[in-house]
Design goal:
The structure holds two protein chains of two kinds.
Chain A (H helix, E strand, L loop, with lengths): L4 H23 L8 H19 L1 H7 L2 H24 L18 H30 L11
Helix pairs in contact in A: 1-2, 2-3, 2-5, 4-5
Chain B lengths: L1 H5 L4 H5 L1 H18 L3 H25 L6 E4 L10 E4 L3 H26 L5 H20 L3 H20 L7 H31 L4 H8 L6 H18 L7 H8 L2 H26 L5 H27 L4 H22 L2 H32 L10 H4 L1 H15 L5 H15 L3 H26 L5 H5 L7 H19 L2 H16 L4
Antiparallel strand pairs in B: 1-2
Classes of the chains: A mainly alpha, B mainly alpha.
Chain lengths: 147, 509
Amino acid sequence: MNPHMVLRVVSKLLIPIIIVFGLYVHFHGDYSPGGGFQAGVLVAVGVMLYALIYGVEEARRAVPPWTVRAGAALGVLVFAGVGVASWILGGNYLEYEVLHPDTAYKAGQHLGIILVEIGVLLTVFSVILAIFYAFAGRAPDIPDEEW
Amino acid sequence: MIEAFLALFPAAVLAQAPAIMVAAPMLGAALATVLPGGRPAWVVALFCSLITAVFAFVLLFQTWGGEVISYAMGGWAPPLGIEFRIDGLNAPVLLLLGVLSLLGVIFALPSVADEIAPRKQSLFYATFLVCLTGLIGVTSTGDAFNMFVFLEISSIATYILVAMGAEQDRRALTASFNYLVLGTIGATFFVIGVGFLYMATGTLNMHDMALRLVELDDNRVVQVAFAFVIVGLGLKAAMFPLHVWLPNAYSFAPSFVTAFLASTATKVAFYTLIRFIFDVFSVEAPFVSAAFVWVIAALGVIGMIAASVQANFQTDARRLLAFSSVGQLGYMLLGLGIGTAAGVTAGVLHLLNHALMKGALFMALGVFAIRYGVRSINDLRGLGRTMPATASAFSVAGLSLVGIPMTVGFVSKWYLVSAALDRGWWWAVAAIAVSSLLALGYVGRLLASIWLQSPPERALMAAKDRIPVMMLAPMWVLAIANVWFFFDATPIVELARGAAEAALAGAPR
């Protein structure tokens, strides 16, 4: 029987909650403290916990390194793309007001900040994981028996 | 001609020009990250630097008559929102960034293919574009904290670019790490200074800050902020006693990175110094005018002699030129320290000219490196016989560094000497003369090795593989510019004069 049975079961229960909590922090970011950066770290921590319990190889299978690289770029593209969209709609760079016609309730501001924060979420999640993979992928320490 | 050029763009595009300058390389960096190989990423980098070069001209022409462009990022009006502010002072620096990044990227393709592992090339170009984004952002922003953010974006990208030299020489890693530690200290000092300024004035917009600082001359917090900002930015600009990161970073980075950084990164940091000393702080304030003579001019003079002496003792060609860069920065600092319009003109003029010289010199060394893999001065011997054309371009730029007539180096030294004489600073003129003699010494060593010594046997034996035109063309453009702007100095002097006027006009007081 696996000696880490308790850890395995508990982490299986916890990881989905961590990720959902991360997304909650993200989507509440325009009303309350939170936002893409914190959310990105939380979601990445979910994957890191998985890697710690089940091994880095398993984590690499679940979230392959190429998706991490693509995610980092995609996040920046989403962020900068919101700016380009506001250009096309006739505003200044990142002027959220023009994104939505409903100005009474500042719908454009909410939409803009959520979209931009999705970009931040993607990039932060990917970069944190990329750093983790880079360190975890290094040659392991000398095991105790070989001293 | 200016109207005809500006008429090519729709009015909506012209109005967005400051944001396009920053957004184009940022989008390009994200795109280059996911591209498979070095060559497609290079095409993206070329396209982005072309856009920056074109829009740098647009902004220069728009601000030519002394107009100031204020761009409200995100539609939030300054001073509360982040403002991009282009005037006569930063438009020439943007032009320098645009043109030299374009020339640098053209130079990069063969050089990077030779020096960087294929699987890292697309990330290399992405990092370069992030660095360019940061440098353009630092130059265009009108918000002090935003300037710190862009300064860090460009610096962190620079540390990575320097570390990429590790495939040639592992010492690039320690050079990069030293640069990281010192650069971070510099950035921290700067942000502490900005924090103090925010505390004293309650604003982060630099123009607004300048208006409020007029009444705060004897405020101790403002004086401390001034000290922190000067030390922080001086570290980034490699001002003399704070230059220790620079020689190693320049000598172990990949050839293209050295050529690009030497002609842009320290120049941008120097621009931020001008912006803070003249525009944000009030020149009439006693602590600022004292700093002109006792800190800026004094360190400039000490630096231009001490670093030139050190350059004379180097054995590595790129390290020699790196020390020479520190020395040359001394001239620019002296120009600022003189503090008159003529002095600032001379400082900015030397900033532009030095970018032309060092760009050409480091590119020529890159060509030598790709052909023979040479690094030390001893290895340069006989290159005048084996590669006469490149050696000539190197010599032209080298003589310009000394300040021989018929080169731009002479023009900027002429302006600097006359500005010093206007203030009656004979000791500064003497220091310029001594430093020029020292420059003659180290450039002479390089040129003597190239032209007077006979090439080693293996160089004559080596296969005559062709040097890529893409490396030679940008090098020649810069080398010819070194001579061209001596005979037609008006455009470059006008740029510098406009910058000095914009710097000294400052906020209405």
